[in-house]
């Protein structure tokens, strides 16, 4: 029998509306309150086949500076995932090829035994760890510490490499620090111009649109996207401009904007003089990108490029404007030149004198719930907690002292995500992989190749809440607590540290990841202490972060409960003095670089790694839809979301549709250098005629990542999800269509169906 979820007893942190917490999904971390659902039987098992689960908790939006009470459809249906029919409630172990329910003791003994044997025979680096930006700060910290002190492997990286790595690299090298938005989101409300590059906020963070109302009214919203996305639509009726470049040419657009700003004398010369270095080199590099040349590459008219540069300049403080922002999203970052593109975006912002001025700035829009904190506390191959470098001896000494280990025993940098995944099961590569919070076989590029690599592993262990497609390939699945079942902290896209609170008991049989890591550490004979109380783990994390770039040492769960408005850095202060107020806005006085100045960095355009060629004459771009989250592991299990967005599709322009001889709904075959798939067309003039678009939320036949390129950015290691070359043809062959996934509707039988549905071991045999 499965799960008898009971509602946790109310505590001081609950208000009249229930448990005060935040959404489980994206980095906007919308505030919500959770109350037991009236009439729902908290002790009921999974829903009967064919019926929607009654969520045990009712979700209500709560007023907060970011969401102002608003939630998107994913947020208000999020409690359904707590009671999905195939929620994992017991460990599963593969026996003679088949997953079977197991006890925790047997499962963990098996894992520990195998890890010990592999390390003894092949060295500690033969075990790799893959984390996720959805884990709480506490869990991300514990995972990094576990990898470095118990496994002693350098090979830990995480899905943030797919998400924020280029933005992080770009910001670090220019501004000296990577905090997605170095200002609170509400600041954007007063702007006169916003240049939004490769972000579809209307679908990916709908409540955030409230902060764009002002700029739209001022006619200053500029959206750069090869598609007329829902966000680009917001520029209609004089509210701004939609710039629709050739995919992968945003860097050229930005270089041309920088060119115009300099050529027309629109730069903030006093700011450049006082607060930056590197202007001469930048000037030389952008001189080559006059608007007419940029037009030839990007397809954006030179007149538009000039108009955008002038609009931004007019809104800039140095020219008496009300303020301007340059913001980047995954559309420009998930590129083999993502770091260069972010760098160019920051160069433009610096030329206009925006960063560090209240009411203006540059920011990258962080994606996952804890994408920000997840990259600060040690899941990244080259980082220790507090955003410290693992190659820096002082940082190693500090963190080793907190952990009670010898700094010499800490490994150095490991392989970044894509390379780590490519090397799985290869000679000299990792032979075991522990996955915490990512569904890589759906979300990583060149996914068919990844499945082959995973099959070559000697051990795959997946900790998850549901039997994701990746979990179904595992040798051992460990069921862990999620979101409303646990305490912790998340760091939002603004660098605001917020509390996640427990509202319901987890199903019996499920354990917290903190507990799993502590138990495994003990079974592996480690003497390093692993706390299982999230508040205690946070205190340790805070100490480990002290003095680092992301300093949390002045924070604690208790303080965050009392003050929900604290941003890092927030260092500890001497006893008897006032606590540090946190840092809402960065760069107001200087930049955290050695000379206190921001660095203008020259960059140049190369183009996509897999560009148009004979046999692949169109661009394939990818992204998201409103109703689904990431690999869909969670949202494909929410019936209301599946009804809104039942399956994969390919957006095709009417001119291309005519050339291909297809109509709305006709299946087409997509073929790239990596593989092929068949999906239904959606004919729309929102996409360019030389481009097709496909969302990545589905697996099996509908998984676009079977086609995407795993070429990476040379600085950040981020893969080029957004652009590759594709051949599209009408499909007249046999095709049984994509089975719409009736997620969570049936308690399903064991076995791998392979079509990416919501299926498997969850309740079988239980
Ligand atoms: N509904 C929903 N919301 C989410 C998520 C989700 O999965 N679903 N995930 C969360 C996470 S982790 C993230 S990272 C964020 C991502 O949030 P966004 O960055 O807004 O999301 P995407 O849809 O991946 O990409 C944005 C846009 O990039 C465009 N694009 C594609 N190629 C190019 C190009 O070459 N140039 C330009 N300029 N644009 C291009 C696409 O057409 C798309 O409209 O969303 C978060 N919020
Ligand atoms: N083509 C294409 N591919 C992309 C992108 C794109 O734009 N285009 N975007 C990329 C981006 S930005 C991202 S962020 C990635 C994300 O893709 P993934 O890394 O696959 O992220 P999720 O689908 O959120 O997977 C999270 C998994 O963790 C589980 N989970 C939830 N909470 C917990 C927890 O507390 N502990 C544990 N152990 N598990 C938990 C969920 O059930 C789910 O199975 O996809 C990338 N892939
Ligand atoms: S915008 Fe993001 S945080 Fe807000 S409700 Fe939707 S998924 Fe949740
Ligand atoms: Mo992301």
From TrEMBL:
Region (Disordered): 39-64
Coiled-coil residue windows: none
Molybdopterin oxidoreductase domain boundaries: 87-522
Any GO MF annotation of the entry: metal ion binding
Signal peptide residues on this chain, from the entry's feature table: none
GO CC entries: membrane
GO biological-process terms attached to the record: respiratory electron transport chain
Keywords: 4Fe-4S, Iron, Iron-sulfur, Metal-binding
Pfam families assigned to the protein according to its UniProt record, in alphabetical order: Molybdop_Fe4S4, Molybdopterin, Molydop_binding
Pro residues bias: start-end ranges: 46-56
Residue ranges of domain Molybdopterin dinucleotide-binding in the record: 618-725
Name of the protein in its database record: Molybdopterin oxidoreductase
Source organism of this protein record: Cellulomonas cellasea DSM 20118
